[in-house]
Amino acid sequence: QLQLVESGGGLVQPGGSLRLSCAASGFPLDAFAIGWFRQAPGKEREGVSCISSSGDSTTYADSVKGRFTISRDNAKNTAFLQMAKVNPEDTAVYYCAALARCGQPITFWGQGTQVTVSS
Hints:
Layout: E1 3-7, E2 10-12, E3 18-25, E4 33-39, E5 46-51, E6 58-60, E7 68-73, E8 78-83, E9 92-99, E10 106-109, E11 113-117
Parallel strand pairs: 2-11
Antiparallel strand pairs: 1-3, 3-8, 4-5, 4-9, 5-6, 7-8, 9-10, 9-11
């Protein structure tokens, strides 16, 4: 069964940090680019960041540039989203997704993990 499982979400204070993980099972992670997306209540899902299958290319939404860092460890079949200097506008369900290449349609999604930024 092809599966992506996110973890690491939770409650964090404004200005704090959090690291999300996206673990792949049933397939080699290095066959895909990995994207992180988020959906806040009442809003559409938006792209946050993407990393190529080899890890040598990354993209970020303007809203997170300089605060979030995407990475991957293909040997561990896991991708990460390091979040820093978070603010309440970062509150959302965060999803990772597998894509053939960044910018192309999603092949399949993870189930999501909730991130809440609040004091």
